[in-house]
Amino acid sequence: MKESIIRSLIRRFSKDELIGLSAELAYFFLLSLFPFLIFLITLIAFLPLSQDDLLNFLAQYAPGESIKLIERTLTEIVAGSSGGLLSFGILATLWSASNGINAIVRAFNRAYEVEESRSFIVARGMAVLLTVAMVFVILVALLLPVFGKELGIFLFSVFGLSDAFLAFWNMARWLVSAVILFIVFTALYFFAPNKRLHIKDVFPGAVFATVGWTAVSFAFSYYVSSFGNYSAAYGSLGGIIVLMIWFYLSGMIIMLGGELNAVLYSRKKQT
Length: 271
Prior knowledge:
mainly alpha
């Protein structure tokens, strides 16, 4: 009798040490966050976007207390910086993100029970490419609402479309965000493990991660804003603690998505 998918995930959760790997991933997330945002802020200076657009996009998911910390820190960094901020952001982001990708690679290889046989250069190159792809899709996510709103207003005025259409157009950004998240997770689950997979093999984990990460982010944000008072326990570190917990939960969702793909792949091979 086959073990159920839920029981398999629970068993693998302990065997593959997802708690420790999620904590490691949270650390690298935090380490790469500010260089990544500095890079984006410097880059969007050449685009019809502002720092507020970037923070508003991040505020869709991150807890409110963390957004205040991020905004305050970025303001201090940008105000006290001189030239070379873009170069620093690129280099620091690539280095930090590649370490995070390596943690994900180890976790996924463990899930598929394979050894890493790719060379250091290939592994780092893959991490860099995934980071560049992530920057690209985030920029698309930032630009679409801006241009989408302008296009919606244009169509509204030219063709005399109803207010309901304009409201629908403004709400479409949530669908766009979900699609972009799905693409990012699909690429991550497909390229990270040292396993030859079909693209359809990673769809279940990508769907799980997209829905799970969005739901967990909103639920945790609501909890922090309504019930959690981390400042009372941690003082000025409260925002950092909230950010780390959010990163930890995000890492857990990513790891579980990879484990789900590995479980389903193993069951398919046994049939």
